[in-house]
Specification:
The chain is an alpha+beta fold. It folds into three domains: 110 residues, Beta-Lactamase; 79 residues, Helix Hairpins (Orthogonal Bundle), CATH 1.10.287; 182 residues, Heat Shock Protein 90 (2-Layer Sandwich). It is built from nine helices and 14 strands. The strands form four sheets. Strands 2-1-5-4-3 form a five-stranded antiparallel beta sheet, sandwiched between helices. Strands 7-9-11-13-12 form a five-stranded mixed beta sheet. A two-stranded antiparallel ribbon has the order 6-8. A hairpin with a 5-residue loop joins strand 1 and strand 2. Helix 8 packs antiparallel against helix 9. It is elongated.
Amino acid sequence: MNLNLQVIFDALLEGVIVLDDDDRIEFLNTEAARLLGGRGEVPQGKRLGEALDQDHPICQIVERVRRSGRASIHDEVEFPRRLASSIPVDVSASILGEYPDRPNAIAIEMRDRSAARSLREEISERERQESYGHIAAGIAHEVKNPLGGIRGAAELLQLSASDDRGRKTAALIVSEVDRISGLVDELMIFARGDELELANVNIHRPLDSLLDLLALERGYGSIEIERVYDPSLPELEADQARLQQVFLNLAKNAMQAMEETGGKLTLSTGMTLENRLVGQDGRAQPTLEIVIEDDGPGIPEEIQHRLATPFFTTKRKGTGLGLAVARHWIRRHGGRLRIESAPGEGTRVAVDLPLRPLIPSHSAPSTGSPGPRASQESPS
């Protein structure tokens, strides 16, 4: 094919493949190679089923077009990748019947939909955060005042109790009221616009601090901890105390998942190119990725979408606020939290943080400020 035409197709955001009548790859551009496995991994001249796995969705689409003789259009087909999560791709394939010398050639056009899906998820998450804020404000109004009255009455009962049992009962009421008040205060995080105390932070410091805290807790002796840090990472502008709270919640979840069976907790850091965050100006921002990975039993797929919902928990003694609060503070930094898990295969939680916050530190989620988006730029 003409070199100038190849350069033009390589500049397109869409992936383009042309197959001959034997399904050999006659042409593909750079974006198509990336979507199908990476630059240089899908060689021209090779049959598509040999270059990829025969079970790859694109092979099945080509087979369907061959069988029916008609064009086929598919939305957000999941393209698998070896070392990362799958990519949603819009695919259209049709036979180039108007070319006599290639009567059965097939042209395939593909578009990466990762950014669009990420944006939908961010909008949905922002709407959920707004609803949490409204719920929290309502709970504070309807619950906090009566709780104060109950606590005061219980303290009077404790002072006037004539026996030990009465005093213990009143003390229990006070203790439970304080516990409920604490839960309400924690839920109020979603309604308040607390400012971040920003400073230059070496991301490894809050991670090492949380491991020191976890080392003091019982029940984790059978768990191995591995640090895979990138020592060349630059400092980021962040609230170190809030980030430590975030990572402590995430690490505790991972440790508790392995409490009975043991396993390995892996903390890794690095810069990310493929899932960079995008600012309000539409430009991809330098992005840190912090990954907390465990060897636990994994999370059933049917409940994964509920994990960050306040008060939803699978633990016997959990409050269901840890992950929701963690996601809240990550969003306040302009970041994003991603969870990948499968039953029996452990859980991988990735936190993406920009080097500089993408939203003002004083703005609350309920103000409707745009959240981060994913940039699917190929590594250069």
